[in-house]
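Regression test case RT-17, inverse folding.

Input:
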């Protein structure tokens, strides 16, 4: 197994890989939205990768990233060592590798290969102007509820999803509550039992 998995993806999709990141043994590859279906099938079917398990699929809203003291781009992270061993903070670089103004959201896929015991994070940047991307339910069935949750909480539409409807909020809920611009004190209609 190579020390990093990102060169395999970069070699196969040189025009679609926007950037890569490797930190503490974790690989991240950032791809274009249009390449998602092809990259997903490659990651699942290539014997050197064999990502047969979609562990998680989520979304990140970067609207306020780097604009508040708590979201500074460079943060000192505590060491994983216990406090009594004099740990030294590790400086991490939180770079998106895409234009923050052009791409507000990242849809993030956490993949695992049960046969080869390795992991990969795949990020797909999206702009507010077009929050539609392909569903990967045909590649990993576990994406079904994950995509419904991301649609419900962030408003990302997954084209080709077999049943894209709200999962956590009720049908009459207005908006997407995990967006950074969602009003924290917004009143919603309270729906009681139908009978």
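Golden output:
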């Amino acid at each position: 197994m190579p020390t990093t998995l990102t060169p395999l993806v970069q070699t196969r999709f040189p025009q679609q890989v926007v950037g890569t990141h490797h930190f503490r043994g974790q690989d991240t590859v950032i791809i274009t939205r249009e390449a998602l279906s092809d990259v997903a099938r490659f990651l699942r079917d290539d014997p050197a990768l064999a990502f047969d398990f979609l562990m998680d699929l989520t979304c990140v809203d970067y609207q306020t990233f780097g604009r508040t003291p708590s979201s500074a781009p460079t943060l000192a992270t505590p060491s994983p060592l216990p406090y009594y061993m004099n740990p030294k903070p590790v400086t991490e670089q939180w770079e998106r590798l895409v234009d923050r103004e052009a791409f507000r959201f990242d849809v993030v896929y956490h993949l695992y290969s049960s046969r080869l015991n390795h992991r990969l994070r795949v990020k797909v940047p999206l702009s507010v102007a077009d929050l539609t991307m392909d569903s990967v339910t045909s590649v990993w069935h576990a994406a079904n509820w994950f995509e419904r949750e991301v649609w419900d909480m962030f408003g990302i539409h997954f084209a080709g999803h077999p049943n894209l409807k709200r999962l956590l909020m009720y049908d009459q809920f207005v908006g997407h509550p995990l967006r950074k611009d969602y009003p924290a004190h917004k009143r919603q209609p309270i729906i009681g039992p139908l009978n």
